[in-house]
Amino acid sequence: MKDNRAGICTLLIAWVMALGGPAAAFAADTLLIHGHIYTGNSQAPWTTALAVSGTRIEAVGSDAAVQKHRGSNAKVIDLHGQTVIPGIVDSHMHLLYGSFALHGLNLSTPAASITPEKPQLLIAKLKEYAAANPKDAVLFVRADFNSVPPTTPTHALLDQAVPDRPVVVHNTSEHAVWLNGAALTMAGITDLPVKDADEEHGVIRDASGHPSGVLLEAAMQLAARAVAVRVPVEDQLSMIEAATRYLNSFGITSVVNATGDLAEIGLYGTLRDRSTLSVRTRTSFGAVAVQHHLWPGFLADLDQARQLYHDDWVSANLVKFFADGGTGLIPPLVYTPHDYEALVMELDSRGYQLMTHALRADSVHMVLDTYERLEKAHGPKDRRLRIEHADLIDAEDLSRFAKLSVIADMQPTFCCGEEGLNLDPTDVVPSDRWHSLEQSGAVLAFSSDWPCTWPPDPFVSIQETATRQTWKSADTANIAGETLDGAANGGASLTGKVYVPEERISVADAVRAYTQGSAFAAFSDKQVGTLEVGKLADLAVLSQDIFAVAPETIGKTRVLTTMLGGKVVYQR
To answer: Per-residue pLDDT for 57 more than 60?
Structure first.
């Protein structure tokens, strides 16, 4: 009996070691010690050390406890008291457009915005950029310009700078593009109407029917399709790879792409397979202000993406709607409520997560109504329905986010102009109602909407949630349409005023929205969003303690190190 018991004990020990029990746990690859680590775990929000084994967190606790997990060849990182937070999950951005903008010429930065009101300076900058990039098949530019006819610019100004190569200028809103003559030709835009009526509606033409060069909303797809063909795939991959490294410099480790298609998802899959993708991606199907149609090709692409891409690096199963646009004095509606509801019902029945862009308060109301009818028609389910932006919310709709389990995905950097984001300056309803939503029990997810904001700095956003300081840009004062006065964008500077201070939230709450809330919104909360045993080791080491410094200085925070799955992908 003794021999049998001894054999059983030996076997049990072997099993425990194979399953990663205590005997096997003392073999971490990396230890971070002597830190000020915010775990996000409500039961133990702060600690000093953690151990990483492979791609995952093996231990979290005191220095002494974590040191016991040290493997024979483990790397030990002494944090010297530096603050660590979970990796930022930017839950709404446009990585491909951001890649183009990062590679291209950016005329709208925190320092200044060069608009068509400074034509000679704009021409000089573009000429200089074109000369420095002679091999680029398309020249990409990011700029602020009017999207309200008849004040929109024309291709003639761009032609003065570059007459022989396509120039595609993305409006900072990403709801309009401005093309030179060569780009109009590339996109097949002539004096004749284009075939798709929705696209033709957004082609700005002069009184004689000649295309001016500006494409609004759905018409942007004319340029996007041409760019996808004209720019070599390897060039696109190179730009995306550079962009993901850039995102790492802000502590960003995961993103949700708020536009995309099967071809774009394939680019991320290629970089994943090459081991050069340095952010985790979840990509929606949808194009700016374009109506979905359940054509066989679209449904086949959705299904193929779900089958092929569902790992920690590249995932899909998400559809993006636009309830309204983002141009004009009042953003245009994209769907009738009936058409929108029919699509939502069908795609939910097929098991897709849904997200909907809504800027106008009436659009938010329509989306909430539709989501409510969806829940009643199809029954309860963990859908994680999302509304993107939700800048303006009628008072009676605030509590419905929590009641209907709808996630509010918001971009704090858009705040705050002196009138907030009100489309009507006489409207007394405040925008950016983070505190009210949070108090009602709604889940907040934060994001940059990059490249609509520049840079995609989460710490500028966190500063704004804690202060709600107002910003004003003289450079964009004459740009018609929705206010452009966001935090440190387009040459904006602080006015010394505060916008609706009662809607502030704490730094800890903002960090949770940028980590746990955003991870939840992306169905990745079991993998990332907090620093807990078993989760992926995605984290950022910061230059200052954002939880303790004056809120007005949080935007000065720099990321010192970004770790993704236990691997350092950025070091300052």
So the answer is: yes
